[in-house]
Amino acid sequence: MNMFLKTTLTAGVLSSMLMSNAFAAPSETPPAFVKRVADNLIVRLKADQSKLKNPAVVKALVRQNLDPYIDSQAFTRTVMGTYATNQYSTAAQRAQFEKNFRETLIENYGSAFAKYSNQSYSMRPYKDTGSKFPVVTIDFNNNGEKIPVSFQLADSNNQWKIRNVNVSGIDLGLQFRNQFAANVKSNGGNIDKAIASFKPDAEAAVNKK
């Protein structure tokens, strides 16, 4: 086989691979993904229920069963808002924010899961709107009260990940963005200080009236 033909075939194969990847999508449906993550999380919560007062156990549980499914980069951009642009922050500052934000999210989720006492959930019917960011809603049953939680998803390397969460109609990403903007202001516009001191408060966000 001559060199021209080899080059042509190689280029054709690479082009086909790139095209197939470009149009690839997660094989799992959005509701199936959310159900799998929720079910696995509840199984672990039930198995470790006697240990949930131990912060280290709860953090490990979150790291293993929820953290891998969070699109922290997308969440970071949402929460930083305009401060995620080159005009206000550097790539290093954004990376530090993402690291800090991820850790505080783990603490927030850990505090919530530590209160777990055999709550169940039910999934609402899913409607595929063709959106780039599909939303799946489930109702957590807490002592007879239904708490709707909506997960906005994004396709990350052919796998669904959670890019934002809405609890009882409260957009957590937006509330955290407001909290961060207020923190930047209280630090006189110093981004480094704002990033170092920012602690997203999920409870305050959810209870926002």
Automatic annotation (TrEMBL):
This is Toluene tolerance protein. Keywords: Signal. InterPro entries: MlaC/ttg2D, Tgt2/MlaC_sf. Residues 1-24 form the signal peptide. The keyword Membrane does not apply. The keyword Secreted does not apply. Pfam families: MlaC (PF05494). It comes from the Bacteria. PANTHER family: INTERMEMBRANE PHOSPHOLIPID TRANSPORT SYSTEM BINDING PROTEIN MLAC.
